[in-house]
User: Fold this.
Amino acid sequence: MKILFYPQYPDKEYYSITHIINSMHYHVTRDLTSHFDIAFLWQDSTQLSCPVDLVNTCRHQTIINQHCIDISKVKVELLHIDVFGYGCFVDPLTHKGLCVEKPNDNGVKGGHVISTPITRKHKDNVYQALIDSTIDEYQQEFRVPIIFGEIPIVYLIRQVPATQKLDNRAQLPPKLIATNTVFSAQEQQNILKFCRLIGLDFGELDIVRCRHSQRLYILDANKTPAGYGMLNYFLWQSQDKKAALATLSVTFDGAVKKLINNQPAPRSAFLESPTHE
Assistant:
């Protein structure tokens, strides 16, 4: 199997797709004129547009993540409200207490806890409620892989609760857990509906559950998921990392082969429409 990546390609070893490609022995190209079986809109940026030359080349082939062109936190918040009926943003000019200030762009460090109200907003930042997801003295976050409308596995991330900076907190190794043990059937439907609306065929979500209300909050959508590199920032246990990547590889391979055999018209892999439902 050969996958076209365009306009960029996954040239870092920490991307999950890099491990999937190597595990399944796929071939990769960046050449629009070469033969390929399926295409992948790949650019490690928060916002982008799908290149016209890619769309024209793939008139009868699937483009993975074709409609996933905005994963900013503002976009995530708007779609979260559409799906779940609530969000996590606060107005720091009037909110009283603690909240989280972080960059609107995806994957940018610098988030921190602040006291509100404040006198002026930072135009490039967003302000989220400080959601208490602590259990047994660790803040719990679910890292949720999405592969063509499936949630094959969930990673439980446990960190020391943030009191100031969000980055570089002490944490425990990720724990692999079955999807059905952490999300109800309705919650899974809502998560996948969110993915359809944002156009995420392949990627990962960062989700927390408030310990008081038990509500879920999708905080980030990642279309170029990472965290699997040799420097091991996630502190993976080797056997768990191997098991996680094996699950992702098998799920991706099965879904892609099904798509290749049933792609009569150009469309996003599991997105029926880029508009809201």
